[in-house]
Amino acid sequence: MTKLHKAFLAVAVTAVITTMTGFIPAASAAPQESKKITHIGLMVQDMSNPFFSAMERNAKQAAAKIGAT
């Protein structure tokens, strides 16, 4: 199984568990419309993997569109 398949499997398992447990985020955890997002954190497994490199590049582009870093 490749790293990419493992990553997709991990995301799928997390989504299934979240759905099965009925997870509902707390209202206090939701971003308030009056507050501006200034920083976004992103952790990736391996920057030498083209998938994660593309993820980082696109996350930076999306953050720049909303004025975050």
TrEMBL record:
SUPFAM superfamilies: Periplasmic binding protein-like I (SSF53822). Residues 1-29 form the signal peptide. Keywords: Signal. This is LacI family transcriptional regulator. It comes from the Bacteria. InterPro entries: Peripla_BP_I.
